[in-house]
Fold:
Amino acid sequence: MTTSMTTLVTTSMTTSSCQSTVQLYDLHPPLDDFRSEVLRGLMQPAKSISPKFLYDKQGAELFDEICELEEYYLTRTELSILQAYAPEIAAYLQEAVLVEFGSGSSQKVRILLDAMPDLLAYVALDISRQHLQESCENLAIAYPHLKTVAICADYMQPLELPNIPALQQRRRVGFFPGSTIGNLEPAEAVQFLKQAAILLGAGGGLLIGVDLQKSPDILEPAYNDAQGISAEFALNVLTRINRELGADFNRDQFEYTAVYNQTAGRIEMYITSLTAQTIHLDGVKIAFEQGERLRTEYSYKYSVPQFQALAALAGLEAAQVWIDPQQLFSLHYLQLPKR
Structure:
């Protein structure tokens, strides 16, 4: 079912040099959705929690810290690709509205905005409302000519963009950095790409970051760093479930692990119970055996041909790909048919 725009909050900020406005559409899923999804995942034989629930305000801030870690090559490598090829990439985005899926701190999109001074409108989609609002307010101050629209929503679900003239008059190009597409099972990734194609429309495009296959010696430290920030990021979801849903997880009785499944081509991230225990959530008893794992994320790694084949299943045509010299990461531009 397509989500419609129901709640609009407009925030205005006055700085010493300009007045900037951000339009914020709040479509954050209700608490009941969070509760039902968490319960459903915890009651499966192989327990899991959707990675989207890792990104409350604290989780989003912890992920920003992860992006600065030496082990976490993904962010700095993708940034280096954007910086090296910004003018070339910008040529594919001319005369378009830029729609970013999972905007986060908006660090990467600033490289594109600097390369496209004539861009008129930018739409940021993110599930973390406070993080989204703060980053978009900062963007509106830095780029006062830019119409900035923030949509707090689960962007993995079908959406419609608001009926704003600036968003309707030009073609739409999506920006999905960070290799977040890897969090999805391949069939789910195809479904997301199909949904993105509908939102972006005929003649649009999608600029998407995809992590490449590589040695476990590089992959595993990237997702389980020596400082333990990756572990804190994962375990924070238990704190969130306790706070928002009234559960009684004891974080000291769980530990975080990340392993590379070479057969499946993915990093697998788990929270493991250190003892036999029972968790209570909304009147439901959830038993954990000692050593039982709760999956928080998968992160699939692709070769360039593998990902292009995946995109083709969604009806998207590979137009260009940019790769860093070490061949760690790829940035793809996919075209939507004009029809």
Remarks:
- The CA atoms of residues 55 and 128 lie 6 Å apart.
- Confidence is low (pLDDT under 50) at residues 1-6, 12-18.
- The two ends are 24 Å apart (CA to CA).
